[in-house]
Predict the structure.
Amino acid sequence: MIQILVDADNVTAARLRAFLRAVPFDEVEMVVAGSPAAVAGATWPIGAVIHEVTGWQQADLALAAAYRPGTQPLVVVSGDGDFSMLAATHGGPVLVVSDRPSSRLRAAGTVVDPVVDGPDAVRHWFDAVLDSTME
């Protein structure tokens, strides 16, 4: 199962929607955190765990608490450098979805901007990691 952590406060609604068009929902576990307004910017899949939070760093804390270390693929939908240590030390492949990821996040995994690169770039990453986990 692919773990997806979405910081809805850190990625535009257009990017969230473009990303969601490419997600193989039957292969993922998704946790979303952000302000009520940010969370309302997209239609989330059935089964997504959604944390509407307010206050500085509250979305980050909710996502950090939801993170499960391991070797399965991880998707971090955020450009926030606060997730760089989590991504850099994750034991499996990492995808960062952002238009402006921190330099540490860029070093931690593959970076895709679904608005600029298109949803196919996201699909390609999912296909590649799903193929490698089936071997």
Remarks:
- Residues 2-134 form a domain with the Rossmann fold fold (CATH 3.40.50).
